[in-house]
Amino acid sequence: QYQALDANDKGLFDNWVRAFKTNLGIGRTPAEKQQASARHQFEKDKSDCERCEKTRDHLLKNSPIILFMTEHLKDSGYTVTKEKMPCMKCSEMRSGGYAPNGTIQLCYNQLYGKNHTETTMAHEMIHAYDQHNFNIKWLNLEHHACTEIRAASLSGDCTWFEELLRGNIGFLKHHQVCVKRRAALSLLGNPQCKSQKHAEAAVNKVFQSCFTDTRPFDEIY
Q1: Preceding peptide of 216 cis, ω within 30°
Q2: Which of 83, 92, 124, 148 is catalytic?
Q3: In Å, how far are 34, 172, 181, 193 from 207, measured between CA atoms?
């Protein structure tokens, strides 16, 4: 049947077979397969990063909570720009981070949509607000615990929907339970934190005063 095809049809068929083999990795050497895998990962990273940047830029212009935090950060001496909020690939299981130099990191390989990106941006912007208003000493576990409590509570990080996505379902004071858990989890990355119990103790010690401090919001968002 192949021999009965004309030259044009043979060319189309050969191209189809070549593409089919390429997609399945048939006939390629290990080095070629590794090169193809690296190329695929590069294209995926590029696409994910561009999507993160597009979502970030949209939220900076349109999100009520991001605009609210931008205004209050400006009043605190911190100007929010997209350059201070780079999208990057993160090896850790985290969606974002805040560095004391004022950089807000967005982990494009850990963000799963606009709502998650918005929550992550708000969370890190609350850290920036605390840094500029309360002189956070990040190696002080109680200081660190306080800003993690506030960020988890005020950013939307512990809404019922976000918890459902994590597989955590509860009703009785579940917001507080989530905030404590998320704050303690963040403290585990602090070099001064010795264990899970150490993190939980620091969170519990400052929880009441930090949880009820909703600045710059009037209430929990």
Answers
A1: yes
A2: 124
A3: 50, 17, 11, 17
* CA–CA distances in Å: residue 213 to residues 50, 86, 154, 206, 219: 36, 29, 10, 11, 9
Summarize pLDDT for 12-65 with one digit per residue, the tens. Answer: 766 666 666 666 566 667 776 677 667 777 788 899 999 999 999 999 999 999
Q: Are 113 and 121 in contact (CB under 8 A)?
A: no
Residue 50 designated active-site: no
Helix, strand or coil, per DSSP, at residue 104:
strand
pLDDT tens profile 62-121: 999 999 999 999 999 999 999 999 999 998 788 999 998 999 999 999 998 999 999 999
Q: Which position has the token pair 């990063």? A: 49
Distance between CA 191 and CA 81 in Å, rounded? 29
